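[job 0412] stage=complex_fold ligand=magnesium ion status=START
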Amino acid sequence: MSKNLLLLAGDGIGPEIVAEAKKVIDKLNQKMSLGIEYSEGLIGGCSIDAHGVPLTDETIDIAKKSDAILLGAVGGPKWDTLERAIRPEKGLLKIRAGLDLFSNLRPAILYPQLADASSLKKELVADLDLMIVRELTGGIYFGEPRGVRTLENGERQGYNTMVYSESEIERIGRNAFEIAQKRDKRLCSVEKANVLEVSGLWREVMERIAKDYSDVALEHLYVDNAAMQLVRAPKQFDVMVTSNLFGDILSDCAAMLTGSIGMLPSASLNSEGLGMYEPVHGSAPDIAGKGIANPLATILSVEMMLRYSLNMSDAADAISSAVGKVLDKGLRTADIYSDEVSITKVSTTEMGDAVVAEL
Ligand code: IPM
Ligand code: MG
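[job 0412] stage=complex_fold status=DONE, emitting structure tokens
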């Protein structure tokens, strides 16, 4: 049975890294007869240029009918001065909301070959394997009211609203508990319950549903402390669950522990298992078109897609093992390069080709 994949390469380095992921899919299709068919669509700045909006309803419809979506990255300086409602980032938020992709899985795994690239001492990050579960369709990103208003004294005031209903907290919470059950059975819920009402409710709901997962140890941390603990002793964590905004911040922080944000994939899932897969990094306009971007986060996003949405774990294993071998051979793109005799600097396409060769 064939599977339909929608590719949304987006802007900046997006097209370059998605091109490498395509090579990997083509190779796996040919070698393992996966029957993955893909079509391509526009999101972000390229969609603004073509259609005047960062994501068309037609593209959302195609996405809804797909078995999975692979996204590159969106945004760039060209579109930064546009009105907020039609900026590239809105396309991303619209597809997340439109497909109800409430659960965002952002693993931070340290490849032993890259321990030197971490900003922390080797012993603090060796064997790091943590999973951040970020709520993706609620919170302050989507909360109403929002805007900029003019006060009586004539001064302008910007405002946003952090809102979570019990059911929204419960569904991401249950999701995180289930993920923890399949891992080391430790879950850390992150909020700011000492200050925010919305966080107080978050904690209450987490406590309540914890009773259904007695095999998982639940702890709570305030987000400021969680940020500190992430850079102090990251290996204390197994799974972290948190809201949209806190997860945005903490996942960048966790990414850096692994040496390069260029290595990290992510999955955004809805309750039916439809998923959108994308590298954690952004469109990196400063290096776009130079052929130096690291395609591994996107290739590893394909791995997650095969595992979580397409039930093709053999093919997923083949990717992780190929990536491991390429790193063992000392091949590195600029972001993970270190000046040593055994290390060879490679371009975006050379890295993609090396993974394909291992497959
Ligand atoms: C991310 C990004 C997005 C977010 C931006 C591009 C809207 O930072 O996926 O982490 O804030 O969610
Ligand atoms: Mg972010």
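The radius of gyration is 20 Å.
[job 0412] exit 0
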